[in-house]
Design goal:
By secondary structure, this protein is of the alpha+beta class. It has five helices and four strands, in the order βααββααβα. A hairpin with a 2-residue loop joins strand 2 and strand 3. This is L-rhamnose mutarotase.
Length: 109
């Protein structure tokens, strides 16, 4: 499954977020792999962040990450830069719905 998320960087933390997010800890990369997160891309426009996550089951992965030591350490560190992430509520409420994709339209033609 592919999900899209939005988050917001705290004002004045744009450069710090990019610097601190050049790489994530290896143990978190391993946790992502174990939980079926295959890829995660982040784009930035000003303070707005746009995420696309390719994974097996986003909700299950997010719930498992709630107690994952690598993720807990990372969140404590990176949240100094992040004002808000995703949506409000459960992981199933976070993903944005896909409306259209050029690749899919081309494949159907």
């Amino acid at each position: 499954m592919r999900v899209a998320l939005r988050s917001l960087i705290r004002e004045g933390h744009e450069a710090g977020y990019e610097r601190d997010h050049e790489t994530i800890p290896a143990d978190l990369v391993a946790s992502f792999g174990r939980l079926g997160i295959h890829d995660w891309t982040i784009w930035r426009d000003g303070r707005d962040l746009f995420h696309v996550v390719d994974c097996d089951d986003f909700g299950a992965a997010m719930r498992a990450l709630d107690d994952d030591p690598a993720n807990l350490r990372w969140q404590e560190f990176i949240n100094q830069h992040v004002q808000s992430f995703g949506g409000v509520g459960e992981p199933e409420d976070m993903p944005l719905g896909e409306v259209w994709r050029l690749r899919d339209q081309r494949a159907a033609s």
